[in-house]
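so my prof wants the structure for this chain in the tokens format not the other one, which i didnt know existed until like an hour ago. anyway here's the sequence
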Amino acid sequence: MVNILLKDSQENICLSDNIFKIHFNMSLVHQVINLCRHNLRKGNVAQKSRSDVAGSNKKPWRQKGTGRARAGSLKSPIWRSGGVTFAKKPKKYFSKINKKVYNKVFKMILSQLYKESRLNILSNLDIFYPKTKFFLEKIKFLNFKKILILVCKLDKNLILSSRNLYNIKVCHVNNINIIDLLNFESIVFTVSSIKFLEGKLN
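here's what i got, hopefully its the right format
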């Protein structure tokens, strides 16, 4: 078991070796991070084919006898404001990531954060007033520039008091991903959130 001292008290918390003492495999972590970033991409090119163009499918004039070329639709690509012949559509960049592999990499990153002393645990983070000053007083002993705070319950006071701070992000422990874990200098858990995550990953 891993013993971690709580930052806001002199108590220790015991956590599982299966999560916080995993060997760090750089190549596997690199592979999964690349896939995660790849999945965040969204294609932005989009053209309208004749089926996407708004308008009627009615034949504009009869087939014969008018002296004009035959036409079946105003949406034809040869007409002005018609559809594009081979319309480009947004590319899908999604690649499947095996759930077991993702969870393993998640544990590796948590273990590395623990080794580098970038993992901090608080007994609680109760904010009684929706004031940024009060929130900063609560976390002033954390001497980091970029902090990710993970809680089990997002109450209104916590959201209002932290939302003006560009270098601090507060979110529910269920919504974290490995990109966020790597982007922040320090990761802060409450006791309830770290126990929730431990139960989820075991």
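also thought this was worth mentioning. The chain has a mean pLDDT of 88.
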